[in-house]
Specification:
About 40% of the residues lie in helices and about 20% in strands. The protein is of the alpha/beta class. It has two domains: about 1-30 and about 180-265, Rossmann fold; about 45-180, 3-Layer(aba) Sandwich (Rossmann fold), CATH 3.40.50. The radius of gyration is 19 Å and the shape is globular.
Length: about 270
């Protein structure tokens, strides 16, 4: 059973290595290209740093959001005391800590949360928000069009929930994301993965759309593989795309590894 990690390049290699250590035949195939904003967007990030201390909460939607936000931090500008950093999962919180956010200032879902998402994050930290608080949501922007209300269902849900709680919400794009651009040799290597025996790990619904757009037309066996989703919304997207088998992994790396071990055992029978 070949396992394909589809996360952005900055994260895919770490996932691939961890899964190989856990005993899986794994390859990284990033299906979400992430890059810096153009000048105007980077100016907005620098302006946000100048007013960062005024925010009660800064929610980072992903590790990429942390990395690109801190890339524009003024020299010597540390994390302001009294500002909370919200992260939807341990990967994002770890990157925030590496960039100097004190561990005691980071809120993330409980270790026993059923999913690592905005809903679980709100359950763990929503009590910190009071009417009149200013909250900044740092997210990505799609390359083709950017509609904050549609950019990530979880992010839109969180923005709505914060507004209902009386917070003043600002959304700020920190990076661009879109479909990868493959060379002919990369396309050929990706097409070789379109087999019944392949298990695809999806942690983003857009990655599924990109895969279908890049490979499905010329590779009819693609959808005969197994899709393992890290969230119910992503699983629904995989089913709608036509994957023959869709599995929902429990939260966290161990939940994912458990699902893969079960699939590996089935494939070996």
């Amino acid at each position: 059973m070949r396992v394909v990690v589809t996360r952005p390049a900055l994260e895919a290699e770490a996932w691939r290595h961890a899964l190989e250590v856990a005993g899986f035949d794994t390859v990284a195939l990033p299906l979400l290209a992430v890059g810096p904003l153009h000048d105007a967007g980077r100016d907005a990030l620098r302006a946000a740093w100048a007013t960062l201390a005024g925010y009660k909460v800064v929610m980072f939607v992903s590790a990429a959001a942390v990395q690109h936000f801190f890339a524009e931090a003024p020299v010597g500008h540390g994390w302001p005391e009294g500002t909370r950093a919200w992260a939807p999962g341990p990967g994002t919180s770890a990157v925030a800590a590496r960039h100097g956010v004190p561990a005691g200032a980071i809120d993330t879902p409980a270790t026993d949360a059923p999913q690592l998402d905005s809903e679980s994050l709100w359950a763990a930290a929503g009590h910190r928000v009071e009417p009149g608080d200013d909250v900044l949501i740092v997210r990505g922007a799609r390359q083709d069009h950017d509609d904050p209300s549609q950019t990530g269902h979880g992010r839109a849900w969180m923005a709505e929930r914060l507004t209902l709680a009386g917070a003043r919400v600002t959304q700020l794009a920190a990076y661009r994301r879109g479909a990868p651009r493959w060379s002919p040799s990369q396309t050929e290597a990706a097409a070789a993965l379109a087999r019944v025996s392949t298990t695809w790990i999806f942690s983003n619904s857009e990655a599924i759309a990109h895969l279908i757009g890049l490979l499905a037309m010329d590779n009819p066996d693609l959808l005969q593989g197994t899709a393992v989703a890290t969230h119910p919304r992503i699983a629904d997207t995989a089913r709608a795309a036509g994957f023959a088998r869709v599995e929902l992994a429990a939260a966290g790396f161990e939940g994912l590894a458990h699902t893969l071990r079960r699939l590996q055992g089935e494939s070996g029978r």
